[in-house]
Amino acid sequence: MSDTRRRVKVYTLNEDRQWDDRGTGHVSSTYVEELKGMSLLVRAESDGSLLLESKINPNTAYQKQQDTLIVWSEAENYDLALSFQEKAGCDEIWEKICQVQGKDPSVEVTQDLIDESEEERFEEMPETSHLIDLPTCELSKLEEIADLVTSVLSSPIRREKLALALENEGYIKKLLQLFQACENLENTEGLHHLYEIIRGILFLNKATLFEVMFSDECIMDVVGCLEYDPALAQPKRHREFLTKTAKFKEVIPITDSELRQKIHQTYRVQYIQDIILPTPSVFEENFLSTLTSFIFFNKVEIVSMLQEDEKFLSEVFAQLTDEATDDDKRRELVNFFKEFCAFSQTLQPQNRDAFFKTLAKLGILPALEIVMGMDDLQVRSAATDIFSYLVEFSPSMVREFVMQEAQQSDDDILLINVVIEQMICDTDPELGGAVQLMGLLRTLIDPENMLATTNKTEKSEFLNFFYNHCMHVLTAPLLTNTSEDKCEKDFKIKHFQHIVSFLCTTSHSHFTPFNFFLLDNIVGSNKNSTICPDNYQTAQLLALILELLTFCVEHHTYHIKNYIMNKDLLRRVLVLMNSKHTFLALCALRFMRRIIGLKDEFYNRYITKGNLFEPVINALLDNGTRYNLLNSAVIELFEFIRVEDIKSLTAHIVENFYKALESIEYVQTFKGLKTKYEQEKDRQNQKLNSVPSILRSNRFRRDAKALEEDEEMWFNEDEEEEGKAVVAPVEKSKPEDDFPDTYEKFMENKKAKESEDKENLPKRTSSSGFKFTFSHSASAANGTNSKSVVAQTPPASSNGSSSKTTNLATSVAATKGSLVGLVDYPDDEEEDEEEETAPRKRPRLGS
To answer: Where is the composition biased (Basic and acidic residues) (predicted)?
Structure first.
């Protein structure tokens, strides 16, 4: 038996009729010699001390409540309760109690609280009979009435009887008349008794009594009674707040008196539940369930009545979108819609569907587009809440609107771009609004909730729209904050100022001076002349954008792949590895980890051609011997590559960075990568020796050409993308005489190259690590004119041919590093080996 089944909390009822928590422990039933009988024992889970030792008396009335509670009284004023974590544990102990008392475990109460004959009479008596004799309703009897109401709460049968008696005799109105008399006489003791009486009647949980208590005639007197809590030195002033402070605003006059009365009643009852009544204890949670239901059905009725009044809603929308409407009025209108949408959450699904369709028909989305661009922060916040209700209800409805809007409007005024701008320009230091908007954007671009039909696919249409019209707005802060080099910094700042100025013009000038964050908050980094955001708020914003882009990598396949490669996005993201904010560096690393996690060879070649592991390894070396989250995340990245045996990345890492990483011995990750690399190399050599040279050469040339054509066709499909591809086609094939004619000569040149590498090892830093230079130019990704400290490649000549003889081995080695595992074809291993032979035509890398 698991311990959780018998895990309980022990409660005792104090003098104020409140339950006190005596501790948490584990209960058991066992025979106790001192008590001479079966007993309940509870030992504390913290130190094993005895929290409870209670003999199961044959005549004690035990009650089982809510499937996980057992309540009983051991003395006249000493009530105990066990609250079980699991129903199974409660059932087990209940069976032990019933076994001792000779009762059927199916009963809820082991002893009758009233005689069976009396219970039979209760069932036979007509409902109009007086089931409980209520004391005369007068000042001298208030204490007796309070004791009666409090005493029946533990018995469901007596609660029913008392509720019926109160209803039949019109007793509540008589009590409220006594309240007025006590208040006039300043009878404090009587007012304290009335507080207990009214609170107890609320806990009877009867809708028929609520109808009386919450009527216009009685509700303010009920609130008055609840002001005089005996535990307070001075009474509260709830009535003063409800009548003077709380003002009912009609944005459009409500002509229906029943609707107005229902709104007033709902507000006041909600106030009683949330403000006046204390938070119910674990034993009182169900006492107010009917009160919650009363409020719930009131809200349903209010929403239905407003929805049916089309004239009212049309007038609200007309004023909301009217330019002549003053700011205060518009603020009230937006707040009305916010509360209206909140009430709609109480509707049944089919009714809620009709509600939002009504709002869409009346033009809620165009109206939101206007108010979300206003200067008033409160209005924008309320509009965001309304937008969240719409997105959560029907993302497809919002997507359909913005795609139709794109056919008629410019990109800068599209609803989604307005939302993105609000996210970018959130003035909250903690970016609370930006986080909310980012979640809504993620819902909108999530393919999981997009519909697919026979005629059209929402996923394809919307993602095409998003990447063509919105993605540049989302990534603008990221691209601007990761400028390629210092010489472009001034241009980038001016460019982003132009973007912000443009957005301000189109969005009603709601951008604040903070949003020109590039001017003051971007500082030069001493690493490779890159710049990195050091302002905390800017770093938070970039982290949010990266989180959204990481989501895109996981869910959008070729759309985000095209965007990353055309914008050289991963290189720009990895600049953030230099940030002093570790959380931002981790976001950049997580973005790369998701890309590598796809095990896509297009991404892998993009990474190796651009030497994009360099900033990651630099970050690892800079971190030194510190054992922190950044260290673990980087190690996990390389461990994933090792475990998944991603050959192209393994070869690139070992060939270019192993000398810098071999000193890291507290994990076996890098040694494991070297082992994988050497095993693969041996396997390739064995296959190479078993295949005739002429066959290898011909087949390699044919397959490489087919591969090149396939890749170029794939990248040419996206005609809408702007900008130049990062991985550009390399120059035409080299002349045949540029390569060694025999495999033996090739191996000799390779050995010469390795001896050169030893002379050009990376310089050791002050921390005994190695340091690399991270090139931030797009040429590195293109594979042209890129330089590495580890493996240097001579610059290509103007006609694209490689250097002769002296630099031959270097050229071949550089080519080899970029051709490992382009695509996982069945004979991939053989083709890799063919590359090491002397092909008659140098294979080209497709873009």
So the answer is: 731-762
